[in-house]
Amino acid sequence: MIRRGYIYFVDLNPTKGREQTGSRPVLVVSADAINQQPLVVTVVVGTDARNVLRDYPVNVRVRAAETGLPHDTVFLCFQVRSLDPARFPSAPAGRLTETRMEEVAKALRTVLEL
Which of 8, 40, 43, 86 is least surrounded, with the fewest CB atoms within 10 Å of its CB? Predict the structure, then answer.
């Protein structure tokens, strides 16, 4: 089951314009009650931390050691996408702690003016 707070590598193609492209880590931010339904899963897209030189209030930078990912990652909370569950592999690549998910929630509130 796809769960909130878990990270998956997902192929985001096809994309347009400035959307993140290719196979990327995505962090599930939708509620588990939604994720259990045959709907879509809402995520924020991650990128290699080496590509993001500055920290912004709408990004969350995490270390590989704390997530299980192969490298440090920045989750771009302004890159919110809803994806079909068929895009997701059966096993997650990592997970964020509750403390880090609170940082993501704060960044999403900034992006969405909530």
Answer: 86
pTM as predicted:
0.93
Give the bridge partners for 9, in sequence order: 25
Counting Cα atoms < 13 Å in the Cβ hemisphere of 69 gives 25
Checking 5-9 for CB contacts under 8 A at 24+ apart, the result is 5/95, 5/96, 5/98, 5/101, 6/92, 6/94, 6/95, 7/46, 7/67, 7/68, 7/69, 7/92, 7/93, 7/94, 7/95, 7/96, 8/88, 8/89, 8/92, 8/93, 9/89, 9/93
- Report pLDDT digits (tens) over 69-79: 999 999 999 99
Domain spanning 6-112 has what CATH number? 2.30.30.110
Q: What is the pLDDT of residues 7-34, one digit of tens each?
A: 999 999 877 766 676 789 999 999 999 9
